[in-house]
Amino acid sequence: MYKNIVVLGGGTAGWMSAVYIAKKWAHKNFRIQVIESDAIGTIGVGEGTVPSIADFFDALGIPEHEWMPKCNATYKNGIRFKQWSSVDGHEDYFHPFYSELDAFHKQALLTSIALRTQGFNTYAHPDVFSVVSKLDQEDKSPISSENYLFKSAYAYHFDAGLLADFLKSKAIELGVEHTVATISDVKLDNTGAIASIISNDGTEFLGDLFIDCSGFKSMLLGRALGVEYISFNDTLLNDAAVTVATEMDSSIPSATYSTALSSGWAWQIPLTHRYGNGYVYSSKYISPEQATIELLEHLNLPEGTPVNHVKMRVGRFAKGWEKNCAALGLAQGFVEPLEATALHFVTQSVIDLVSAIEDANYSDANRDIYNKKLEARFTSTRDYIELHYLANSRTDSKYWHAARSFTPNRRLQRLINAWQRGENIAHVLNEEKVSLQLFSLEAWVYLLAGKGFYSTTNERTLKVAPDNVNVNIERIKQFVNISATHFKSHKLSLENLKP
Ligand SMILES: Cc1cc2nc3c(=O)[nH]c(=O)nc-3n(C[C@H](O)[C@H](O)[C@H](O)COP(=O)(O)OP(=O)(O)OC[C@H]3O[C@@H](n4cnc5c(N)ncnc54)[C@H](O)[C@@H]3O)c2cc1C
């Protein structure tokens, strides 16, 4: 029975896992320890999220006004992709999170875009259908005025270091024990499971269940248990990032910006007091020095501005839970940060792990089910991120050619064929059992239509749309403009965060 739980690592993944387990099993008298090294740092990035994180805070019973100001957090309506496409009119587009308001025109969006894929001259850019895209353009919060009935899902941006500190204090309040020690050895028992981990001063930490949150090196799952690693670098080229903070503007954007550069893409994430910026690139196509110069130019910062360099290992372990060890966070795997999904993997994995263990009377009987679910999450997230690269139409560098030149897997090839023939991609997603939980049908459509990934891109060859198409763009624009007036300025809603 899993009663003595040892979490290795005090990064965001370590503290998210510890606090969630401590909250869920508060009355069980289990021992939960977090061991982190003061000699090995945390990754120091990871500031954007997806809406499922709100459910995680709800499950912990922590309201926004308590944690957001302490973590310099802001609201996130979605991601704006800039310069990923060289198709006229598609230089940028927005990927909004779900909104009840956008749902009103979902059918109009799908009809208009479907006709466009069939070669008719209809409205082909998704932004015009979305109130949430308008909120981004006006730096508005996803929180509507009081008494306004329609709600939008949203996520957050935050300072990852401050969030780890905040969750650490919550975990310790809930009885989690915290030890600073650097682990240098792992003892296995005669079944090959982990018996204990040993620090470099000889202290031995015994446990029934080990949660490996040791970052990219995956000290327990990868190194000690030797679980196979599956690299994604045959299709996802980026393996490094350079980061720098910049000053906040007078108004605070409510979205992440992802701008394609010569050999990757740059993020800009607004926190209350600064922007976090980074250039995710492929070291095969650009050196760290050149990437630094390009990032600083992109941000109009002087040469010589201090930056941080990060290496990335993009791939996953074949099993996220082996014997008595489950890895969470970077130790479990990482699909590159384009859609800010890594912390979603942490929260969903710890939720799944706790319920898999509870349902099996605190044993490992549900391990295979857990591993299959995790594999499916990796597969659909990886597919979605790969499609960003396959659908790019930049011609300015070898990197962008290479980024779309890999052979898509069967699912993606089927999806692309269906899209370009003007067929309904919903059927393909359903038949291929692509999980639509994280990326809905609209999200796939936003990606392809936003980038102008149409087989007929020359407007002059387009046919006149049939008369009976029930899409009144002027009325939709009016609806979008009026609806956006019900939402506050982002900056104001952050200032007004109150109990
Ligand atoms: C460039 C980049 C951008 C990213 N952007 C996003 C984003 O926008 N959104 C998102 O959700 N995620 C993002 N991520 C991922 C995100 O940063 C991580 O998922 C998150 O920070 C969790 O990291 P971690 O806790 O798994 O690992 P780490 O932060 O690396 O923490 C590892 C911990 O293990 C401890 N440790 C390691 N070895 C030992 C040892 N031998 N003994 C004791 N302790 C040890 C360390 O001290 C540390 O406390 C990004 C990642 C990268 C690389």
UniProtKB/TrEMBL annotation:
Active site: K76
Protein residues bound to 7-chloro-L-tryptophan: K76
SUPFAM superfamilies linked: FAD/NAD(P)-binding domain
Gene3D superfamilies in the cross-refs: FAD/NAD(P)-binding domain
Amino acids binding L-tryptophan: E339
InterPro entries, sorted: FAD/NAD-bd_sf (IPR036188), Flavin-dep_Halogenase_NPB (IPR050816), Flavin_halogenase (IPR006905), Trp_halogen (IPR033856)
Keywords: FAD, Flavoprotein, Nucleotide-binding
Pfam families: Trp_halogenase
Highest taxon in the source lineage: Bacteria
Ribosomal protein as UniProt keyword: no
Chain sites annotated for binding FAD: G10, G11, T12, A13, L330
Molecular function via GO: monooxygenase activity; nucleotide binding
Alphabetized PANTHER family for the sequence: FAD-BINDING PROTEIN, FLAVIN-DEPENDENT TRYPTOPHAN HALOGENASE
Protein's name according to its UniProt entry: Tryptophan halogenase
